[in-house]
Automatic annotation (TrEMBL):
Compositionally biased tracts (Basic and acidic residues): 529-544, 555-567
InterPro entries: Kinase-like_dom_sf (IPR011009), Prot_kinase_dom (IPR000719), vWFA_dom_sf (IPR036465)
PROSITE patterns found in the cross-reference section: PROTEIN_KINASE_DOM
Domain of life assignment: Eukaryota
GO BP field: mitotic DNA damage checkpoint signaling
This protein's name: Protein kinase domain-containing protein
Length: 1052
């Protein structure tokens, strides 16, 4: 043996020992030492198993290198001994690995107890001149450090003995009830399988010193409550994958021997909730919503709990074999403590009292347990009638949810002090009842038989106190009083109907968003957003990722349904904090301002960004601001504003609409146009609406349709010419453009050229050209099941979910038979425009991309690719899990790019990757580009030319590279691009259609590009349009919903 070989062996042994004492070493919450088995295996296998080979030689060098085991045997699948070998090396018994291997002590059996009295094993160890009992005892003690409990998705191990090591960094008690304890735990990411990390990526800690750790909750039952554990585990398995519910990630049993006898704990691993609802209300630096959009967003997100309850009441479960079964369910314990705040979403939790039964038209069940405070009167009656049990309907959940809604509305209007006072009001009312009529709970919402009159009176108080900007809470209170808190269970609204009512209320409130109440300038909005994004003086648990703060240990036992809110004198003084959903609401509003500014700069070259930012205001309509339809005064000072109620002089702008207020600000003061004006106004939908249908107006300016309202008088659209500029209607809370229409400006500069919007097409786009249809205001996720006929994509999604097995992965889904005939050996890349101009339609973009990904399941063997415009840091290649697309899209929504889209740069990045990866380049490629067409325009170039150049160069390069590929490009569309247009700007959509219909002819390339609007009536053609001539030629005329009244489709 050479000196070099000896050095390599010694170095390998030293490196192993060093890593074992540092890099691979961990301690858990009990200060138990354990090592990272995955890291050990990776090191052993490195360099084509070279490390393992050197280590094996090193431990045998003092024995003449006589060994009866090879490296291949160490790694053999059935008898793998890598961890066993590591344990023995750590004990300086590495040379005994052959003995352990021969006696079947392998990695798969290492956690089994070794029979120290085994005569054959003992004899073999004595032959190696070691003490068998000493070696085996040390091995038994050390092996637990090398085999911590393996945490996997849906784990279900049974752990026997007290030596098992749970690899939790922290294990802190955060709640204790009558049947179980709840702990918050931290797990290092390297201990979780990759697919598990992907499923729970939101659980990754955001705090710098705990980066790489994941947060979970563990619900622990003792042996006296094993039945509760089994019931809750079964319930979690039944609702697995259902949205709006805290998910079970696995469970384990731990059997130990204690001084007082055997002890067993039953544990469920859960998603971690930063707060339950009561804690969320009491959080001193989280404030109720104030602005309209904040209020609406809060209620929309909170009402997802109703969807979760509805899923329980009518549960559809698909078995592994593909059969579908229907069940009725009861949660039976809905209360604030069982509604968790999980990474910004409200989710239903704690299914310990849940019941499920075979589906019935009138489901009834006997319910054990529940919480008296939020329980229905019939549940309270059952408890007071000892020895008598009555089967209960699902209406008990409706009552309980109504009580939670009542408390939530109180917080939304009066804050945490109102919640405390509301509880005192109910307690006082119940104390005044005769003793034999009092309900079980001192803070119940009923008097034993029906709702407390004081609850209804409290609701009236809330109506009186609600903000003028609140468009929905009073209607929710009406729903609670009229349909939910009813004594007769049969009269209560079914939960499914409640969800439909919710949708109607939300749509009505969204229409109300067109009438903001306050006048707020862009600088104020920006300051509010900046303040909200700054960290609070004392960070809240949610903002800091809910890491292990000492305060979380202070929670006591839950009382019988009473809130764990602090008492009045313990609420701290107000400190800077966060208003719920303010950042999201203000970001949306500000994007609306920026959209207008971009449009203004695009149509008026003389307008600069500096001037547009000088003063931009959202001036809004309110009932108290309505003025008679007189003439408005034309402002000469850009900072002048009219106070509500001031009379308007007769002179001035003769074109002001009734009920409108406006603020003018000038264009740059050039010699050519000192008096040019751009106006930003808002209007009541009752007093200002857009044309039903229009074409390009005569003259030089273009008017845009109002996507929300109905009609405008003819006089408002007929005078258009060189004396005209654009008027853009906006509203404060959404920042959404209501409409633009021509506006006459007095005294224009005679030298200013008319405003002309150009298009690369030979003729200007039609006013309502196909594809300019805006996305509806509501979210598609709440409507596609019940309104499947409204959009082809809704119907497609509903059918897909009916066929798809309940699974996290694409891989178990059936291939689409129609697409399978055409798409073969082809890479599909979704390219999503993440410019801020896409922000308002992002829920629809997400829904669209997710649905198309479901259709393409298993057609791309190496997984679908998702690419975003911009830096590429959000890209995700080889997506194989159904949830990955939506998760990535949601993350991208939080990181929308304020700069115009560099589509040319994005395509260059994709083409470069295709060229560099030869294996990738041998496959056909289709890009599905989802965009609104609002791309950056290079200096002195027409919009889109750089994109055209990149596409043409790439196709020509493919043609030059191989004649075979050239034929494929020409006849089989080896490479193709499908543009899916979310453009509401007719010019942007015309540019996309130009790429489809004109560019390829002008530039002499095959027809490999297609453009279709997002609401195209044939969903498959949104995939095949660039691949198949029939699908390419199937472009349809606008539907009647588009060419007719816009209200026909906006609120189906």
């Amino acid at each position: 043996m050479t000196h070099n070989n000896q050095s390599y062996m010694d170095a390998a042994l030293e490196e192993f020992r060093q890593k074992l004492t540092s890099e691979w070493k961990r301690t858990n919450y009990k200060d138990q030492i354990f090592y990272l088995p995955k890291a050990i295996k990776a090191w052993m296998a490195a360099g084509d198993r070279q490390n393992a080979a050197l280590l094996l030689e090193a431990v045998y060098k003092d024995r003449g290198f006589r060994r009866d085991i090879t490296v291949a045997q160490l790694f053999k699948e059935q008898t793998r001994c890598i961890i066993v070998f590591a344990i023995l090396v750590s004990l300086n018994y590495g040379h005994l690995i052959s003995v352990f291997h021969q006696h079947n002590i392998t990695d798969y059996r290492v956690d089994h107890d070794i029979d120290i009295q085994n005569s054959n094993l003992s004899r073999a160890l004595r032959n190696e001149r070691v003490d068998p009992i000493k070696v085996l005892t040390e091995f038994e003690d050390r092996k637990w450090s090398f085999t911590p409990v393996n945490l996997t998705y849906l784990m279900h191990p049974s752990l026997s003995g007290s030596k098992w090591i749970l690899p939790f960094k922290e294990f802190i008690l955060i709640g204790e009830g009558g049947t179980a304890k709840v702990y918050q735990v931290l797990v290092e990411g390297c201990l979780l399988p990759r697919d598990f990390r992907e499923l729970v990526r939101e659980a990754s800690n955001k705090v710098a010193d705990l980066a790489g750790f994941y947060e979970f909750a563990i619900k622990e039952y003792d042996h006296n409550h094993a039945e509760h554990f089994k019931r809750e585990r079964e319930a979690f398995m039944a609702i697995r994958g259902q949205e709006g519910m805290v998910q079970c990630l696995g469970d384990f049993e731990h059997h130990q021997q204690a001084a007082q006898g055997p002890q067993t704990t039953y544990n469920i691993l859960l998603e971690f909730g930063q707060f339950h609802l009561g804690e969320f209300f009491a959080e001193p630096q989280t404030y109720p919503p104030v602005l309209q959009q904040e209020i609406l967003l809060f209620w929309k997100k909170f009402f997802k709990v109703a969807d979760a309850i509805s899923s329980i009441h009518e549960l559809t479960h698909t078995t592994e074999g593909g059969s579908t079964r229907r069940y009725n369910g009861w949660h039976a314990d809905i209360k604030p403590e069982n509604i968790m705040r999980v990474y910004g979403e409200f989710k239903l939790s704690d299914f310990g009292f849940a019941k499920f039964a075979n589906y019935s038209n009138r489901p009834l069940s006997y319910i054990d347990g529940g919480t008296a405070t939020y329980g229905a009167p019939e549940m309270d009656t059952e408890r007071r009638m000892r020895g008598t049990k009555t089967a209960l309907t699902q209406a008990i959940d409706v009552w309980s949810f109504a009580c939670v809604l009542s408390v939530t509305a109180t917080w939304a209007i009066l804050g945490v002090q109102g919640v405390l006072q509301y509880e005192q009001v109910r307690e006082s009312a119940i104390r005044d009842l005769p003793g034999d009529r009092r309900p079980s709970s001192s803070a119940a919402f009923h008097n034993g038989t029906k709702v407390l009159p004081e609850v209804l009176e409290w609701h009236q108080l809330l109506r009186t106190c609600r903000r003028e900007s609140d468009p929905i809470t009073d209607k929710i209170l009406d729903l609670i009083d009229d349909r939910m808190l009813l004594a007769d269970p049969d009269e209560r609204i079914p939960i499914k109907e409640l969800c439909s009512k919710r949708d109607a209320l939300v749509e009505e409130a969204e229409r109300a968003l067109k009438r903001p109440e306050v006048q707020v300038s862009q600088p104020i909005l920006e300051k509010l957003l900046q303040f909200d994004r700054e960290p609070p003086t004392t960070s809240s648990k949610e903002d800091e990722g809910s890491t292990m703060y000492p305060a979380r240990n202070a929670r006591g036992k839950e009382s019988q349904g009473k809130s764990r809110l602090p008492k009045e004198n313990s609420v701290p003084q107000a400190k800077p904090g966060k208003v719920v959903y303010r950042a999201e609401a203000l970001s949306t509003a500000l994007e609306g301002v920026k959209d207008i500014q971009r449009q203004t700069r695009a149509t008026d070259p003389g307008t600069t960004a500096e001037t547009n930012n000088e003063f931009t205001s959202f001036l809004t309509w309110s009932p108290v601001d309505v003025t008679p339809s007189g003439r408005g005064q034309q402002a000469t000072d850009p900072m002048q504003t009219k106070l509500p109620g001031e009379p308007h002089p007769a002179e001035g702008n003769p074109r002001r609409e009734p009920g409108l207020t406006a603020q003018e600000f000038p264009n740059p003061p050039t010699n050519e146009a000192r008096d040019g004006r751009t106006r930003v106004v808002t209007a009541s939908p009752e007093t200002f609406t857009s044309p039903r249908l229009s074409s390009i107006v005569s003259g030089s300016a273009v008017g845009y349709p109002d996507p929300i309202a109905g009609e405008i008088s003819a006089s408002d659209s007929q005078r258009v010419g060189p004396y005209t500029v654009q008027r853009t209607l906006m509203h404060l809370q959404t920042g959404r453009s209501l409409s633009t229409a021509p506006e006459v400006v007095l005294s224009p500069s005679p030298t200013r050229a008319p405003l002309v919007m150009s298009s690369p097409t030979s003729s200007a786009p039609r006013f309502n050209t196909e594809g300019t249809r805006p996305c509806p205001l509501y979210s598609p996720y709440g409507h596609y099941q019940t309104k499947a006929e409204s959009f082809a994509m809704f119907k497609e999604r509903k059918e897909l979910e009916g066929r798809v097995r309940k699974s996290w992965s694409f891989r178990k889904q059936e291939r689409d038979k129609d697409l399978k005939k055409i798409i073969e050996d082809r890479d599909i890349v979704f390219v999503v425009d993440r410019s801020s101009t896409m922000g308002q339609c992002w829920p629809w973009v997400t829904f669209w991309v997710e649905t198309l990904a479901m259709k393409l399941a298993r057609l791309d063997d190496d997984g679908l690719d998702l690419v975003f415009t911009g830096s590429g840091n959000l890209d995700h290649m080889g997506c194989k899990h159904a949830k990955e697309f939506k998760t990535r899209m949601d993350k991208a929504q939080r990181e929308l790019d304020p700069m115009p889209t560099d589509m040319a740069g994005c395509l260059s990045r994709i083409f470069s990757t295709y060229r560099q990866n030869r294996k990738y380049a041998r496959r056909a490629l289709t890009l599905i580009v989802v965009t609104d067409g609002s791309w950056s325009v290079p200096a002195n170039r027409q919009r889109g030319n750089k994109v055209e150049d990149n596409i043409v160069d790439f196709v020509n390069e493919l043609q030059r590279t191989s004649q075979d590929v050239h034929d494929k490009v020409k006849y089989r569309r080896w490479f193709s691009i499908q543009f899916v247009s979310f453009a509401t700007d007719p010019v942007a959509h015309a540019n996309l259609k130009h790429l489809d219909s004109v560019m390829w002819k002008e530039r002499g390339i095959p027809d490999v590009i297609d453009t279709k609007p997002w609401d195209h009536s044939i969903v498959n053609n949104l995939i095949l349009g660039s691949l198949h001539e029939f699908a390419d030629d199937s472009d349809e005329e606008p539907s009647t919903a588009v060419t007719g009244s816009t209200s026909a489709w906006r609120h189906p």
